Amino acid sequence: MNNPRTFLLIALFALGYLIYSQWQMDYNPQVARPAAATTGEQTDTPAAATPLPPDSAEIPQASSTTPLAAPVEVTSSERLVQSSNPIVVTTDLLRIEIDPRGGSVTRSDLLAYPLHPNEDARVRLLDTTPARYFVAQSGLVSQASPAPNHEAVFSAAPSTYSLADGQDTLEVPLTWKDASGITVIKTFVFSRGSYVIEEQQRVNNQSAATWTGNAYRQLQRVPLVSDHSGIKGFTDTERYSFMGAAWYSPEEKFQKLAFDKFAKEPIDGSVSGGWIGMLQHYFFAAWIPPPGETDHFSSKEIKGPAGSRYLLRSMSPALSIAPGQEQAFSARLYVGPKLQSTLDDIAPGLAKTADYGMFTLISEPLHWLLSMFHKLTGNWGFAIILLVLTIKALFFKLSEAQYRSMAKMRKMQPRVAALKDRYGDDRAKMNQAMMELYKKEKINPLGGCLPMLVQFPVFLGLYWVLLESVELRQAPFILWIHNLTAPDPYYVLPILNAATMLATQMLTPMTGMDPLQAKMMKFMPLIFSVMFAFFPAGLVLYWTVNGALGLLQQWIITRRIEAGEKEPAAAKAK
């Protein structure tokens, strides 16, 4: 293919088609997820809350006196019963339901995130509905002492709590007592402006024997499976975002485990200063043990008649409390969005939950730069435009060299046409003559490739920023663009992009192209406009503005070169 620009455009089209094709598939082969189901974003539509029976793997066995002994499964005759009277806690950011049976966090609505734009329904992350089962559990286990696991019944005085105006923290205590003299108070502490819930289990030993046991925290969920019925439009690019388990350790850093690998590659190890979490598009839940505590992390797939559940657990070392003594064991639970600017302040590596995959090195700086521009403009669309201007400024000289090369090639078109007439269908001699001509006139036919190659990683990096950054979720631009992460509803941006490509073609030399290549180039604007009709509006905005600025730069340089050629000719004639 003689024209490198043709090759790059076809490569971009193939890449776009690959992205679009993968967009239509699910990331996890076990999960068939449309937009709303992928994130677990659900309305308050009533559903039959049939309790899921516990498996023997749900309740760990207390370790021996060896601090780092791994948990062992035991059989439980108890069954998980969904409480008909949950404890409801409302803060400025969360509406949480806590089941008195076990003190488990069984439902969470994220009040700052609507399910759809301009609707009252909020994103629901944790839920006990069987099809969306996702809960955060915790408890104590002991081999020889009474201990409340996540199925023990706690008592609570009020059943409704609300963070009042001017109140910064809210405590929700639950109490469990045993006839032997063991009392456990499990307290959830909520803070204003935070998605972090601090949990404290305080054990008061008034029995005659030393209490020994372990504290554990675990997340349990099912994959989200749904069809397209009831979905109000395809509003978010959520098709193949990662969904599964994740954990962090100072040694291995951020790690992921997809649902289909739970049985093959289970987590099993001791970690100090880490955390465990369950990720999905835009949102996640994570248990964060105390920084200095060395916990045992483990995972398990629990198979049942209704399908598989996936469990991720953190278990403390062996604990000991003498008679008449009291001790508290604490951890933090995060239930909320993947806000990259604040997550690392909560725990190391937590911001990595916004997973950009292989484009992390490009996407993270782009996200940071977009965030800075958003602080200036207050609008993510204008932030994208400023990003284009910044990239254009950084690569101005490179683009200038590209357009000068193209302008010179445009000048050579009559001479190339003469070569075609001379050599006819002899392509080998034609190409050799063209290379000699380019060498003589100091034209680099590959000069137009480098700027486009530079744009490729930025284009893909921005695609992942738009796909994974919750800050841009449902972000409006102006006029008809109400959601930058959804396709343009009226296809205006794809049409503008096609017009930009057509105008660019008029200034681009078709030197050395055979008729088939020339026809392909003519159809490229139409093909790209169709392809971009399915892309996020923010991405098409970036590419359209980038193309328009490139067109302007190319037009100015072409005019300058043509004007420079006319002046010596006019002087000579004079």
Topology at a glance:
Elements: H1 4-23, H2 35-39, E1 60-61, E2 72-73, E3 87-90, E4 94-99, E5 104-114, E6 122-124, E7 134-141, E8 160-162, E9 169-177, E10 182-191, E11 196-205, E12 211-221, E13 244-249, E14 253-258, E15 268-272, E16 275-279, E17 283-288, E18 294-304, E19 307-315, E20 319-321, E21 326-337, H3 340-346, H4 360-377, H5 380-394, H6 396-411, H7 413-423, H8 427-440, H9 449-468, H10 492-507, H11 515-532, H12 537-573
Parallel strand pairs: 3-8
Antiparallel strand pairs: 1-2, 3-4, 4-5, 5-6, 7-12, 9-10, 10-11, 11-21, 12-19, 12-20, 13-14, 13-16, 15-18, 16-17, 17-21, 18-19
Helix pairs in contact: 1-9, 1-11, 4-5, 4-9, 5-12, 6-12, 7-8, 9-12, 10-11, 10-12
Can you describe this structure?
With 574 residues, this protein is of the alpha+beta class. Helices cover 34% and strands 25% of the residues. The chain has 12 helices and 21 strands. The strands form 4 sheets. An 8-stranded antiparallel sheet has the order 9-10-11-21-17-16-13-14, with no helix packed on it. Strands 7, 12, 15, 18, 19 and 20 form a 6-stranded antiparallel sheet that branches. Strand 3 (87-90) and strand 4 form a beta hairpin. The longest helix is centred in the last third of the chain and has 37 residues, at 537-573. It is elongated and about 105 Å long.
